[in-house]
Design brief:
mainly alpha, 4 helices, DUF3886 domain-containing protein, rod-shaped, DUF3886, 79% helix
């Protein structure tokens, strides 16, 4: 009988401790930092994201310009035009 009482008391004690643990969440970095420091970090993060987007946009523009230059070069290359033209001359006939 004494063992049952100890087990019940231990079970209730564990339930009480788990409830207290749920109330006391571990401190996160956000909770530990001052609000102005947190704002500075958020601003720096946004700045880095915008810089990365600008860099990607610049790379995309350079690739697009390179494709356009290659297409223009190919349009001036007679051999390329001859090899890639359609041989159906009836569509051009009047």
């Amino acid at each position: 009988m004494a063992k049952k009482m100890k087990n019940r008391a231990a079970g209730q004690n564990q339930q009480h401790q788990s409830a207290a643990a749920k109330e006391e969440k571990p401190a996160t970095l956000k909770d530990l930092l001052r609000p102005e420091m947190l704002d500075k970090l958020k601003a720096a993060g946004q700045e880095l994201k915008s810089a990365e987007e600008a860099r990607k946009e610049e790379v995309r523009k350079q690739e697009e310009a390179a494709r356009a230059a290659e297409k223009k070069r190919q349009e001036n290359d007679f051999e390329y035009l001859l090899n890639n033209s359609k041989m159906d001359w009836r569509s051009n006939k009047s």
